[in-house]
Amino acid sequence: MLTAALGAATAAGLGACVSGGPTSGSPTHAVGAGSATGAQSAGDPAAGPGTGTTPGPAAASTAGPASGPGAGAAPAFRADRQPGIWGRVQPFAAFVALDLAPAARAFDVRRMMRIWSSDIERLMSGRAPLTDPEPELARHTAGLSVTVGVGARVVALVRGAAATPRWLGELPAYRIDQLEERWSGGDLLLQVCADSPTTVSHAVRRLTVGVSDLARVRWVQRGFREPLDTGEGLIGMRNLFGQVDGTVNPSDESLVFIDGQGPSWLRHGSSVVIRRIRMDLQGWERVDRLARENAVGRRLADGAPVTGGRERDTPDFAATDPLGLPVIDDSAHVRRAHAHSAAEHFLRRPYSYDEGAPDDPDAGLIFVTYQADPLAQFHPVQARLAERDLLNLWTTPIGSAVFAVLPGIGADEFLGAALLA
Amino acid sequence: MPDTLLSGSRRTLATSPSPRTRRSVLTRQAAAVALVATLAACGTTQPDSTSAASGSTAAASATTTPGGASDTPAPSADRVGPLTITDGWAKATDEMMSAVFGTLVNNSDQALHLTGGSCDVASALEMHEFVKNDAGAMVMQRKPDGFTIAPGASLTLEPGGNHLMLLGLRAPLRNGDPLTVTVETNLGAVPLTVMIRSFDGANESYDPSMGESSMSHSS
Q1: What is the pLDDT of residue A72?
Q2: Which residues of A are catalytic?
Q3: Burial class of residue B218 (count of CB atoms within 10 Å of its CB; 0-12, 13-18, 19+)
Q4: Does A114 touch chain B if contact means CB atoms closer than 8 Å?
Q5: Residue A157's closest CA among A244, A229, A215, A238?
Q6: ipTM, 2 decimals?
């Protein structure tokens, strides 16, 4: 089965969506009120190593400052928007979905949010949570951000089923999907990101143990990615197929955050789609370089279109070779993923995963996207890729979940205050 | 940064399944201890440095505050009371006993003598300590004279150490709910609001088999 999501992810990295999109042009510093991450594009960590790719503003929004782990301002917990969306992307992450107890009521959601707010605020400021038996592990924040989302059941519990946004639920079924229950769905989401895997581990443990009487962990997906500062310069983000990935993002924040167009309890919130894309590393092993580039429509070395130019240049979809055949294959990922309208852009924040052994790979991409409306922005691209995309030969979506990402909070509030008001 | 998780607790009270219990905690305290601040603490202050101000108000004037006090804005620093608790929490439980932990801070210029206290959902609140008994084992026992905190000093309450013991609980203490206790001091009664949290560590503090004789839970 084939993968659209990866397609979309790669599209990002490969710049398929760059052209004509909001990514080109305007600077994309992390200026969201909720992301005091101080992302400054001092370079282009997203560009492949050793390539001459021009730094692009779009890269800054995910790749953030061309500085190493720990550099830059710490993510802010109390702001209009939650941290962990806009701005620098930390190299280690865990995505944790939880299910509320079967008999849960609205006040249980309130209790969870009080607990998480206290613990997250403390963890993000280098203070141990109140009941932390390993307080030393909280001493260094390592750029920690924790982002909280809720599923349809939580919204229905608190505000009634009628208040659930139409996009909050399962995505339409795509024919490439081979979804597994153990990687799909959930009532609540924690996205935990940091520059240290120990910090991620500790935060996940505290935040799940602390509410273990209220919610049960449904699935955990751990991921890693670049940019990473090796001390010899930055390594840009590439997926495990070696493709420049997840680096092209909209500069238009209104595509990412919910403003006037959504329910009031989601103002300054967002939505997140988390798709687990298994990548067939063994199959990919047998594909020669030319075929790999043809599948994507971009050069592996620098992510530039096979029609020439640089990574962020618009692919020339009309170009033909001397025989009159299209230079970019009709089913090349870059062609299929290319946004058909400005609305088909979303923020990509993917991580790789690798849980298997060399002769029995279990690896792929945790494809994470933020957008104001998944059905309007994510779905059209995914549907097109599901229909036809050469990369689908080596990629399979095995998990899928959608959550409403709560707004940030003020000084006297706890997470979900607007939802629970 | 302020940790204001208990904000909105009043709303919780209204929707909680055991609202009667919780509401009574607040109302009675408000009436009894003068508690602009109790309510303020529950409603708008910062639980991690909780109910600071409550004390001040209580101590400064033992007069009762009219209703509507809950809308009082969070007190400013210059109104900090003689006794505050930072990082305060109480252990969630379905049992009859629990305890309050955190760091008690004496903000006054006098020695603060904590002699006792109360909690609306408990039959008694006692000051407890851990000491070595004749057999060399660490046991928990009531500290008959209570705690004394020097001016400007603080006292750490922690599992396996000093704590405020809650006895005869009449309702479960639920993870994530606020809890207000009132501590009697030589400078007046001080309400302290903390968050209830589940906690599996240091179970010895709560082992019921642990020498009843050494635990003078007379009440």
Answers
A1: 52
A2: 245
A3: exposed
A4: yes
A5: A215
A6: 0.80
